Amino acid sequence: MDMRFSPDELAFRDEVREFIANNYPHELKGARRGEMSKDDILKWHRVLYKKGWVVPHWPVEYGGTGWTITQRYIWNEENARAETTPLLPFGLSMVGPVIYTFGNEEQKKRFLPGILSGDDWWCQGYSEPGSGSDLASLRTKAVREGDHYIVNGSKTWTTLAQHADWMFCLVRTDPEAKQQEGISFLLIDMKTPGITVRPIITMDGSHEVNEVFLEDVKVPAENLIGEENKGWTYAKFLLGNERSGIAGVARSKKAIERLKKLATAELVDGTPLMKTDEFSRKVAEVEIDLSALEVTELRTLAAESKGRGPGPEASILKIKGTEIQQRITELAVEAVGNYALVQAPRLEVTGNEFIPGPEGSQGVAQDYFNMRKTSIYGGSNEIQHNIIAKMVLGL
Ligand SMILES: Cc1cc2nc3c(=O)[nH]c(=O)nc-3n(C[C@H](O)[C@H](O)[C@H](O)COP(=O)(O)OP(=O)(O)OC[C@H]3O[C@@H](n4cnc5c(N)ncnc54)[C@H](O)[C@@H]3O)c2cc1C
Fold it and tell me: CA-CA distances (angstroms) from residue 245 to 14, 93, 205?
């Protein structure tokens, strides 16, 4: 693959850069998702929807841009460079592709427009207490009664369900069948009576995840995706997309840039930390890992552009991408040292108080705590190692 940009690609990069500079809602700069309102989270989504750029990765017939992989690469780079808020993946990267790939025409007409415009906010009802890594053991039950399913059970770790209009949900429809063969994929309106959402506050102090309880929830049978008891196939397709989306290469590059600035401002016996052998070696190591991951991601994108969806190789992107993200936050905490302590969550430091520490160090501790999640969600990294061993290496 030729990694240099052609004149057309450079022109495209300039167009994207200018569009972001002129249209990104500036009030969102530097905001953390856990502290943002629903409206704020959707602001950038709505701008991109109006421009027709909200789903570059979708087929053109459903609203995609038809960009080449290089253009998509440029798009990601420019968003990371400008530090735009990442769009929520639940509709755009998770259930949307499931609906246009496995849904019927009626479902495509009904659900895709709301996903594209951002009018419908989706959440992911996969995990349950006791069924995370061992997802196929899930117990939330859906029993067919006439033209409805009656759903009972509970989901957990449901990200941003407090704002959701819809949940895509894995349910057990055949308790007698082998685990994977008795699961179905249902779309549930969160306003249906019988649904309760309870917050879980995470260790960085934010409210991102929830428990969702379902008690005799009546779901029209027309909200079933594909065939009854074939939900595991659609669930795995979705997880492949979820995992490759977690790699976050472009954003990690930007995070390394910030880390270097921070470590340049911090002095050790009068010398910038970034100039010390030990610290600069650690940064170099993570940069090398990131370059290797970038090439792997480009290979995946190239395969995708030839019609091969992300297979089990997505697990490699997930593991390396999240290890790098976590490593960068660890090094940032190391760079600011004791100053990270005063930013520890729940100290309730308000905007008006003086926060000691070098410039750019605010939020370093919150980011460190928040990023612990990345090696757990989307299927834990240990599980990804198992998938690579079995499905990629054939062990
Ligand atoms: C911040 C956050 C957001 C999330 N958002 C969502 C969401 O929106 N929707 C949703 O459905 N889920 C969500 N999840 C849930 C996530 O997918 C699960 O937490 C994850 O799959 C792990 O499951 P578990 O928590 O039950 O841990 P467990 O499965 O109990 O695992 C505990 C530990 O044991 C290890 N382990 C388990 N089995 C094996 C094995 N066979 N081999 C080796 N090691 C193993 C795991 O790696 C882990 O370290 C979210 C999780 C987090 C942390």
Answer: 24, 8, 25
Ligand 1 centroid – CA 130 distance (Å): 9
Closest-CA residue to 318 (of 251, 390, 229, 380) = 380
CB atoms near residue 16 (< 10 Å) = 19
Q: Is ligand 1 within 6 A of the CB of residue 303?
A: no
Scored b (16 or more CB within 10 A) or e, 165-177 reads ebbbbbbbbeeee
Which ligand 1 atom lies nearest to the CA of residue 124? 9
- Give per-residue pLDDT as tens, 30-67: 777 767 889 999 999 999 999 999 999 999 999 999 99
CA distance to 32, 173, 367, per residue, from 333 (Å): 17, 47, 9
Q: Looking at residue 338, what is its pLDDT?
A: 82
Cβ neighbours of residue 289 under 8 Å, at least 6 residues apart? 320, 323, 324, 327
167 close to ligand 1 (CB < 6 Angstrom): no
Q: Is 8 in the pocket of ligand 1 (CB under 6 A)?
A: no
Rounded Cα distance, 310 and 316, in Å: 11
Pairing state between β 209-220 and 267-268: unpaired
Helices (H), 137-248: 231-246
Cα–Cα separations (whole angstroms), residue 201 to 157, 160, 209: 10, 12, 7
Tokens representing 110? 């009904």
What percent of the chain is helix, strand and coil (3-state, nearest 5)? 55, 15, 30
C-alpha pair distances (Å), 388 with each of 7, 94, 176, 274:
39, 21, 30, 36
- Cβ contacts of 180 within 8 Å, gap of 6 or more: 136, 232
Please state the pTM of the whole predicted model.
Answer: 0.91
**pLDDT at 1 (0 to 100):** 53
Strand partners, 166: 122, 189
Q: What percent of the chain has pLDDT over 90?
A: 75
